[in-house]
């Protein structure tokens, strides 16, 4: 059935701290790139394991979390190089069938904080800027992490409002903007968020 859309399992964006091969995407594309349509890349931004968070300074970790959008952009750039290397790969697009910010400590962007909302918006912008490549991005465990249900046991979540704001602009035109300001580097790895320069 030529109408079936085939999805391959890719390497998660922030998964390099795990025992997963960084060459995974390349091997999948080399072996089956002409056979599938979408590459599913799970994308989580956990603050850190709870016990480790307590011992960390909050400012460097917050900077690492805020740098996760840049990390995603660089991931896309690397993936684009791979998909443009051969004509038979150029049809492949990306979906994030699971993504989300999963902080575990109230002081480091728990679900009910503005920082969580800011991180969520940062990811939306990365998806939009790469909309020629990204075909879908679905929040993982939507009701728990967004809480659109009034009777849900979780307190109200800022991510709900962020999602509503972006939904209001669905279908409108994106306008390219430029921002200048101070830069910094993330020198230390925080679980899924590796070092990133400038």
Termini separation comes to 47 Å
* Low-pLDDT stretches: 48-55
Overall pLDDT confidence: 79
> Which percent bin holds the helix content?
25-40%
- The ordered H/E elements are EHEEHHHEHEHH
Radius of gyration: 18 Å
Question: How many strand units?
Answer: 5
Beta-strand percentage range: 5-15%
> How many helical stretches?
7
**Overall geometry:** globular
What profile does the largest beta sheet have? Answer: 5 strands, parallel
Structural class: alpha/beta
Model description:
- It is a single chain.
- The chain is built from seven helices and five strands.
- With 198 residues, the chain is an alpha/beta fold.
- Strands 1, 2, 3, 4 and 5 form a five-stranded parallel beta sheet that branches.
- Helix 4 packs parallel to helix 5 and helix 5 packs parallel to helix 7.
- It starts with 6 loop residues before the first strand and ends in a 30-residue tail after the last helix.
- About 4% of the residues have low confidence.
Which features characterize this protein?
198 residues, alpha/beta, 36% helix, five-stranded parallel beta sheet, 5 strands, 7 helices
Summary?
With 198 residues, the protein is an alpha/beta fold. Helix content is 36%, strand content 12%.
Write the layout of secondary structure elements.
Elements: E1 7-9, H1 24-32, E2 38-40, E3 43-45, H2 50-55, H3 58-66, H4 68-83, E4 93-101, H5 114-129, E5 134-139, H6 142-146, H7 158-168
Parallel strand pairs: 1-2, 2-4, 3-4, 4-5
């Amino acid at each position: 059935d030529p109408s079936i859309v085939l999805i391959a399992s890719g390497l998660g964006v922030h998964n390099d701290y795990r025992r997963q091969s960084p060459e995974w995407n390349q091997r999948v594309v080399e072996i089956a790139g002409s056979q599938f349509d979408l590459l599913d890349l799970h994308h989580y931004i956990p603050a850190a394991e709870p016990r480790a968070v307590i011992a960390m300074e909050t400012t460097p970790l917050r900077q690492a979390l805020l740098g996760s959008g840049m990390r995603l952009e660089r991931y896309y750039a690397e993936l684009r190089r791979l998909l443009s290397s051969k004509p038979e790969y150029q049809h492949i697009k990306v979906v994030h069938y699971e993504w989300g910010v999963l902080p575990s400590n109230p002081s480091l962007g728990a679900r009910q904080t503005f920082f969580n909302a800011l991180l969520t918006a940062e990811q939306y912008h990365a998806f939009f800027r790469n909309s020629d490549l990204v075909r879908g991005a679905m929040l993982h465990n939507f009701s728990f992490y967004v809480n659109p249900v009034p009777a849900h046991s979780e307190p109200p979540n800022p991510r709900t409002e962020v999602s509503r704001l972006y939904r209001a602009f669905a279908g409108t035109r994106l306008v390219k903007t430029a921002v200048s300001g101070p830069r910094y580097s993330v020198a230390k790895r925080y679980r899924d968020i590796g070092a990133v320069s400038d």
